Structures are given as structure tokens and as C-alpha cells.
Amino acid sequence: MSRTVLFKGNPIAVDGPELKVGDKAPDFTVQSSGAAGLGDVTLSDFAGKTLLLSIVPSLDTGVCAIQTKQFNQRASALPESVAVVTVSTDLPFAQGRFCGAEGIDKLRTVSDHRDVSFGKAYGVLITEGPLRRVLTRAVFVVGPDGTLTHVEYVPEVTSEPNYDAAIAAIG
Question: How far is CA 50 from CA 45, 63, 73, 78, in A?
């Protein structure tokens, strides 16, 4: 199923389903870089926790950097039962460099670079134009039971998400 979002006012195609509040969160496998090297990260790694997924096209762009810094700042006030994860198609090493340079230490970054399966499952994979094969801006909150409690597909890729609505959905 193909939908569109806007990039600087121009429509671009996005692949995957349009998820809604109440849907079961699709499983995913993404990559993360850590002390032990590259490793897979899946939805089940966060079982029993509330999971805030912040989706960005690339950490090395202005709005994506703002979004990641904003959720990093807000994550410090959240309980231990909440995990905040930023997902992009940036390579895990680039994500690590960005986080180190920007002092991002309250959230985790993961990469969908390998097969963009997260993008396809969550309906955020851009399939055409200058952003082809990156993820569109979105925010999802997954409850401890694996159900989506908040879904925001940001209509204009260059706009910021509604941070307050995402944090409020954590409850």
C-alpha cells in the first residue's frame, strides 16, 4: 500500500501500512552499535516496557537533530519502565558519532539500513524522490502489552512532531 507525505511541499511516496492506535506493534529487526560491536535489536528486547519510537530520515539534518535532542532531553524525566529509541537508516557508526558529538545519552539509536524492514512494517519507508530509501518522520508509542498507544505520521517531513502528545501517550 502506498501513501504520500510532503517534502518541502512536494508529495513523495511512502510504503507500508498506515498503523493506528490500538494496532499490535509490528515486530522488527534493526541494528545497533555497542561495546560488543554490531548487534540486532528487536521489539521483544523491550518486552514489558513502554517504548517510544522516534523515526527520523537522517540524524545529520537539522530537524532530525532537533527531534533527537528533544526526545533525549525529555527521556531524562521518564521512568525506567520507558525506553526511548530513535530509528533512522543512518549507519550505526554514524549514529554513534552523532550521539557522542551531541551528548545524546538518554535514548538509544538503531539503524534500519540493512533491509529497511522496519520502514516497511511501520509504513515509514520513502520510496521515491531525493529521500528514497530513508524513513519519513513519525513517532510511535508502544505500550507494555505491545499495542500502539500513539501514532503520528508527520505530514511534512521537514516539520517537527508533536512531542507533548507523544510524551502524554506514555501515561
Answer: 11, 25, 17, 10
pTM as predicted: 0.96
Which residues, including other chains, have CB under 8 Å from residue 167's CB and lie 6 or more apart?
Answer: 52, 74, 78
Q: How confident is the model at residue 43 (pLDDT cuts 50, 70, 90)?
A: very high
Number of Cβ within a 10 Å radius of residue 21: 12
* Distance set, CA 100 to CA 49, 67, 156, 168, 171 (Å): 25, 16, 28, 28, 30
Q: Domain coordinates of the chain in residue numbers?
A: 19-111+136-170
- 95 φ, ψ to 5°? -60, -45
Residue-level pLDDT at 128? 87
Amino acid at 81: S
Separation CA 75–CA 170 (nearest Å): 11
CB 148 within 8 A of CB 140: yes
Phi and psi for 151 in degrees, rounded to 5? -140, 125
Class of domain 19-111+136-170: alpha beta
Residues designated as active site: 64
